[in-house]
Write a structure and sequence with these properties.
Length: 276
């Protein structure tokens, strides 16, 4: 693989190997008890010793397997690898969330995941999301579909927003959460129901197989979105922001084609991408 850019499938093979071992570490450390190491953006935005240990393990593994590739991670930021490649320089960049759903992890709720994606030239081309507790594992490569347990995934075929089960999430900042709650209050009367499960990467993967019909959230970071976003789009969901913008920190909306416009318009009316 040295010299030329690996294929998405080659990158996925590396990602799966690294993510499985990382998930094993997270699971083992949960069994040994959770240590809150620090808080980040707010008092409720915790980082556990496991978040750091798992990300360090991923960084070390990638440094061995792909020493020239930069890695962007939630806990340690950008690590630049050994070379001069970058997201726009023809090289590979990895994006890792060591534990997505840290609050679930803290409380022992079996809904959190290791998320690892590979970008080439700034475009996510491979990704894996692995539930730390259940071992459920979603994978995708660009153009190669989304998969779990050997099955190719397709999103929901629901066409009626009023029948749609919609997942969402809330940020850690109190003012942002209040705005997000107002958006949900304005939406809940127009959909089947709302789910707030606590791990954005898993929300996107559940949408990929129709276990929820759609998902939206404001404030996601690259590590929340990268792997799960590819899984969702490869399963047929449209993954975008509002008003023609790409999915990003303002808003990630993942919906089957038939639900995208009605949900988009409702969220736009509710200023879901606005607020603090
Ligand atoms: C959080 C989870 C949560 C979402 C938040 C994320 P973390 O990630 O994905 O579901 O609502 O926006 O920050 O902090 O558990 O890695
Ligand atoms: Ca995290």
């Amino acid at each position: 693989m040295t010299g030329s850019t690996p294929t998405p499938q080659e990158l996925l093979t590396i990602a799966i190997d690294v993510a499985r071992k990382a998930a094993d570490t997270a699971y083992r450390m949960r069994g040994e008890g959770v240590v809150v190491a620090a808080t980040k953006s707010t008092r409720t935005d915790v980082v556990t010793a496991a978040d750091r240990a798992v990300e360090r393990q991923v960084l070390d593994a990638l440094a061995t397997l792909r020493p020239d590739d930069p890695v962007l991670g939630e806990e340690y930021g950008e690590e630049n690898g050994g070379g001069a490649t970058g997201p726009t320089g023809g090289g590979v960049r990895w994006i890792v969330d060591p534990i997505d759903g840290t609050v679930n992890y803290l409380y022992g709720l079996p809904h959190c995941a290791v998320s690892l994606a590979a970008e080439v030239d700034g475009v996510v081309v491979a990704g894996v999301v692995r539930n730390v507790f259940t071992g459920e594992e979603w994978t995708a490569t660009v153009g190669g579909g989304a998969w779990r347990a050997g099955q190719r995934l397709r999103c929901s075929t629901e066409t009626d927003l009023g029948q749609a089960l919609v997942a969402t999430g809330f940020g850690y900042d109190a003012a942002r959460r209040s705005h997000q709650a107002r958006v949900v209050a304005g939406l809940i009367g127009h959909v089947r129901d709302i789910r707030r499960l606590g791990a954005a990467a898993l929300d996107l993967c559940l949408a990929a197989e129709g276990r929820v019909d759609a998902y939206f959230e404001k404030g996601l970071a690259a590590w929340d979105q990268a792997a799960g976003g590819l899984v969702a789009s490869e399963a047929g969901l449209r993954v975008a922001g509002l008003r023609g913008r790409p999915a990003g920190p303002d808003l990630v909306l993942a919906a089957p084609e038939a639900l995208f416009a009605p949900l988009h318009d409702r969220l736009d009316d509710l200023d879901a991408a606005g607020g603090p």
